Queue: 2 jobs
Job 1
Amino acid sequence: TERSLEASIEAAVAGNHVGDIGAAVMRTVEGGGYGIIRELVGHGVGRELHEEPQVPNIGRAGHGPLLREGMVLAIEPMLSAGTARIKTLDDGWTVITADRSLSAHFEHTVGITRDGPRILTAAGTAAEAVAPAPEGA
């Protein structure tokens, strides 16, 4: 799952499409026997935490909304060691795979910049990621 996150972030460049992100997840996982969770997706981030566009974990390169400089996306590949089907438990919150297989979810919030994708959740704060520290700091 972590490798699929890295590959999907590399695909998150201005001029690509949302489908390129999902296609990167699929390429990374292909042949490994893992299920790609399709019902839960990444999303745009802005004034609201969950905004358009949806960022599925599957896709076709060159399809879907165009990625533009200034966009912020939550990229969140989710894989299972079994089925890709999920179900929500009676508490209305807990989600498990239908076959109760192990699953993993990795996520980063990524800014689309002219210099490529910028991981905003890897720095100490988002402000540090957007505005680098001055020389010698």
Job 2
Amino acid sequence: MAETFPEALIGVAAPTGGERERFGSFGSRVRFGPEALVELASIPGTVVVNGVVGSAGLGASVAALEAGNRLALANKESLVAGGPVVLDALRRGGGELIPVDSEHSALFQCLVGERSRDVRRLILTASGGPLRSKTRDEIANVTPAEALAHPTWSMGPRITIDSATLVNKGFEVIEAHHLFGMEYESIDVVVHPQSIVHSLVEFEDGSLKAQIGEPDMRIPIQYAITYPNRERGGGRFDLAGKTLTFFEPDGEAFPAFGVVLEAGRRGGSTPAAVNAADEIAVRAFLDGRLGLLGIASVLEQTIERIPTIDVDTVDDVLAVDAEARAVASSLIGGAC
């Protein structure tokens, strides 16, 4: 990509020796180190697409908004861990925050032109992941390979496991709370295996508006970059023969979902703590050191051990993140 776009600047946040050598030929176009992403996101007049995985993307999100840029946000952890910090940067910098996640892009599109007082409820859809038809007992014995076999989306390992546990959907509820200013009691989740209805908005008159389309991430990415325009892109959608089904998520089979929702309701630093603990727990599961249901136990015990405090800066969030990682690692080392 660096060769395809000769004017592009390049940021490598955590370079290996090989990467320093490989990118060295690009000279001053390359920025290395933890502040590389922040520096590039701060360039005024740019559209910043943040697809970084984990809380490492928070600094770049804040920098983009403080610079008055449009932030096309795929890094949901920015809002999960640092929602108040991101929204404060948005207010101060006067930038734009457009979601890239397919569910939040759907809600955003459904809300264009609507009055906030007319909205009764936001409804996020979930594919249910690869384990949606399994019982709690079956899930207890799931292997990493089984949990990584997502039926709809091709994603990285952490988000695929988060989809399997419904942790990802809990994070998306927190994200929707911050993006759209809705109380948690007014945000619901339904499992929709076909992944055709990407989310819905229910209005006070009882009507619903849904955004429907093929499960193709190119569509919400393009929308976030080109909004309010709609550039020609995907093909025609064939409704004939399609069947749409919806059902409630199983809280007993997927206990981590409820833990994440509770973290969101507590607010403050607790979402940052649960996000960090999840990152550690997912890695332990993938390494064979923790069962899939053990992830929920790690999350729950971590947020119980770390008090909820206000988070006002990126440093505040990162301090909670570090503490939660240490607690979660200790819990896993002691088998919870």
